From TrEMBL:
InterPro entries assigned to the protein according to its UniProt record, in alphabetical order: HD (IPR001356), HD-ZIP_Homeobox_LZ_Class_II (IPR050762), Homeobox_CS (IPR017970), Homeodomain-like_sf (IPR009057), Leu_zip_homeo (IPR003106)
Family statement: Belongs to the HD-ZIP homeobox family. Class II subfamily.
Lineage: Eukaryota, Viridiplantae, Streptophyta, Embryophyta, Tracheophyta
The protein's name: Homeobox-leucine zipper protein HAT22-like
Pfam families, alphabetized: HALZ, Homeodomain
GO molecular function terms attached to this record: DNA-binding transcription factor activity, RNA polymerase II-specific; sequence-specific DNA binding
DNA sequence: TCGAGCACGTCTATTACCTCA
DNA sequence: ACTGAGGTAATAGACGTGCTC
């Protein structure tokens, strides 16, 4: 089941969207600091869930705890909320600007997206983890290619060495092999020359 | 000045749930 | 209808940092 709005998303949690609520105005200077929040999503109808509506304003940890307690008390299994495209998109925009949250931005985003601050916080945590994982995969691939190149180079040098050894065995008095550094590419090269 | 205790934020590993092929 | 894989929201615990006493 794909949810199209934050309200519908809340229905996944078995919460009602019947009640509407007015949101507190944002701090006077936040829009300049957090331009991504000026998109105006969910501005007209931002229903809070019943759970949120009847819950007193709490700090992040407390609100999270309150919901956990409530879920525990009522014996409700943890339900998964699917963020809407609009919610994800705004979070992404915000993440592109700052990959970490400050408390004010967290509150503002939560209000804007009709999510709990804890959900915004979790989203940023998971987003950072995903970014890091992707980055690690890219670096891993880079190292793998580098390793392949070095292996190929190593095999080539081994072959060259074998050739030189056999050459030396055949003409011990006439040739000498020297290792020098190529001035252009800065790599070690071998040179063979006649002794007489 | 140093250390203990606390609050808070972040990271990491893991779980739980959802969607889709 | 069932199932396994993959994606991701949520949780738990460890750790670092700053502040206060």
């Amino acid at each position: 089941m794909i949810m199209d709005t934050a309200c519908e998303a809340n229905l996944v949690l078995g919460l009602s969207c019947a009640s509407t609520v007015e949101f507190e105005p944002l701090p006077p200077n936040w829009s300049a600091a957090e331009p991504s929040l000026t998109l105006g999503l969910f501005e007209s109808a931002n229903p809070k869930t019943e759970t949120e509506a009847r819950k007193p304003e709490l700090g992040d940890k407390e609100s999270c705890r309150a919901i956990s307690d409530e879920v525990e008390e009522e014996g409700i299994a943890r339900k998964k909320l699917r963020l809407t495209k609009e919610q994800s998109s705004l979070l992404e925009d915000s993440f592109r600007e700052h990959s970490t949250l400050n408390p004010r931005l967290k509150q503002a985003l939560a209000r804007k997206l009709n999510l709990r601050p804890r959900q915004v916080e979790v989203w940023f945590q998971n987003r950072r983890a995903r970014t890091k994982l992707k980055q690690t995969e890219v670096e891993c691939e880079l190292l793998r290619r580098c390793c392949e190149t070095l292996s190929t180079e190593n095999r080539k040098l081994q072959r060259e060495l074998q050739e030189l050894k056999s050459l030396k065995f055949m003409q011990p008095l006439y040739t000498a092999t020297a290792l020098t550094v190529c001035p252009s590419c800065k790599r070690m090269i071998t040179s063979t020359r006649l002794l007489k």
